[in-house]
Amino acid sequence: MRAASITASFTPSGIPTSYYNLFADAGLAAAPPLDPETRAPVAPEKLAALFAGGLLEQELSPRPQIPIPEPVLEAYASFRPTPLRRAAAFERALGTRSRILYKYEGASPVGSHKLNTALPQAYYNHLEGTRRLATETGAGQWGTALAFACRRFGLDCSIYMVKVSFEQKPFRRTMMELFGAKVRASPSELTRFGRAFRAEHPDHPGSLGVAISEAIEEAVSVPGTKYALGSVLNHVLLHQTVIGQEALRQLDELGLFPDAVVGCHGGGSNFAGIAFPFVRHRLDGRELQLLAAEPEACPTLTRGRFDYDFGDTAHLTPLVKMYTLGADYVPSPIHAGGLRYHGAAPLVSELVARGLVEARAYSQERTFAAARRFAASEGLIPAPESAHAIAAAEELAAEADAEGRERTILLCLSGHGLLDLSAYDGQP
Ligand SMILES: *Cc1c(COP(=O)(O)O)cnc(C)c1O
Fold this sequence. Notes:
By secondary structure, this protein is α/β, with parallel strands linked by helices. It has 17 helices and 14 strands. Helix 3 (about 70-75) runs antiparallel to helix 5 (about 115-125) and helix 9 (about 190-200) runs antiparallel to helix 10. Pyridoxal-5'-phosphate (PLP) binds near residues 112, 267, 338, 339 and 415.
């Protein structure tokens, strides 16, 4: 089936010139963030200490299309559009009758989709006079992307890296430092919250919830510093829609339209990035399955409750309505560090609650088995996070084969695993 219409506009090289705001375009509403004390919707001014105004405006924007600033487009031009490829050898390895296509975000200079949002976040902060960004990172992909983006737009960058990943992934730290960022293991001795937390839990492996608390504390206490988040928030999802907009156009050039769109899900940004531009078509009546793949070890969408909760362990964030396992949840240290978050993007949560998006959970063993098959056939080594999307695509293809159907499955390969090779050692 061909795409009904391509409404976005593109640069001559094929990069979308605006971000796609699904909720505004489709007239969908999501529950607003609440002030934990008053339980009233948070006034945007309250978040101005943390985020640049240009980003807060996008967070709540009623505009369906939000133009991408020229300097950001220029930065995108070094790696976008990313390739869309058919995984023909992988299809043969599976023996499936379905087509499997992947959008390869591992082609970005830092190796993942995270740069799509790091660049505009650094740009708007630079524009508004911020001198430094503080952030957390799990497996290190977000930290690497923000470090590079800060470098590009002349900002300092301070990164709290979840301790278990800091120890498991030393090369990610090397990359962040190479781009000029300061990196510390979280919980750290540098923040009041980190010191208190370590006193109470001396051997804690760290978690994204704790690292977020530390980064926020630094942002509110050090002048000229703001905070950056690599997933979950509306403006982050918005920036990632370059993925799906490009994919729609690239598929159209091949005369194709998918009947399944699959992405792995940690905080929801790469999934939303590939899926949201397609959701519009589903709302317009296309038959289209949208599938978010998450780890069994952190089953936010499949086992969490849809309710207001804090985004961090110290309860410094507003209350947001999302699927959550609880702000104190500490997932076991699986290799897909980027998927170890207790919550989920409110916008993805809303679509799951409405039945527009489906979620499934996969075991670490199964995702690595899928990733190994993909690597051996396509020659690309997927990030352990992206491996969840591959496992999901395999499952959809097998289901279709069993039913005698032939499907067109689009998956987001959110990053490469070249810095995760030790995780592949010892996996069956
Ligand atoms: C961070 C990351 C993820 C998970 O984050 P989302 O916000 O859910 O996209 C997935 N894959 C890769 C490669 C990542 O770096």
